[in-house]
């Protein structure tokens, strides 16, 4: 098994507490389980079990540390994502695309958070089936 580390960051506007709540909900929707939470600045989450036969990143044991930091002036928040995961083989383009798709989802969820603390772009598919 090879341990890989991947870093990414996002800048968003808004209140750090509201951003943290939306981010936490978005992460839970992606099947991560919470390990540590220090609201509104840090969370560590985990997904997958891994194992010797694990070849896809979505099945590998993944630890994700997320740090939020406010700019000294203004409402800009920097979010750092620190991924650590183990794979039996090489980190492929499909693995990279999978991580990117998660970050795109988070970006959409955080896009233009309104005063209610919820993003204006909501995806509630449960109403479609009723």
**Unreliable residue stretches:** 114-130
Rg over C-alpha atoms, rounded to the nearest angstrom: 16 Å
Count of helix runs: 2
Spatial shape = elongated
CATH topology: TATA-Binding Protein
Strand order of the largest sheet: 1-5-4-3-2
| CATH architectural category | 2-Layer Sandwich
Strand segment count: 5
Strand-pairing-aware structural class: alpha+beta
Question: Could you report the average pLDDT, rounded to the nearest whole number?
Answer: 81
> What is the first-to-last residue Cα distance?
46 Å
DSSP helix fraction: 10-25%
CATH class category label: Alpha Beta
Query: How many strands, which pairing sense, and closed or not: the largest β-sheet?
Result: 5 strands, antiparallel
What proportion of the residues form beta strands (DSSP E)?
Answer: 25-35%
- Tell me the series of helices and strands, N- to C-terminal: EHEEEEH
Number of domains: 1
Look at the structure and name the CATH superfamily.
Kinase associated domain 1, KA1
């Amino acid at each position: 098994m090879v341990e890989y580390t991947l870093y990414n960051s996002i800048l968003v506007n808004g209140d750090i507490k509201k951003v943290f709540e939306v981010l936490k909900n978005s992460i839970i929707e992606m099947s991560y389980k919470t390990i540590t939470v220090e609201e509104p600045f840090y969370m560590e989450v985990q997904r997958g079990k891994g194992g010797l036969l694990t070849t896809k990143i979505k099945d590998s044991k993944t630890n994700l540390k997320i740090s939020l930091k406010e700019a000294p002036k203004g409402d800009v928040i920097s979010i750092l994502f620190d991924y650590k995961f183990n794979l039996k083989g090489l980190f492929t383009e499909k693995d990279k695309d999978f991580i990117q798709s998660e970050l795109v989802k988070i970006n959409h969820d955080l896009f233009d958070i309104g005063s209610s603390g919820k993003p204006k772009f909501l995806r509630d598919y449960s109403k479609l089936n009723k």
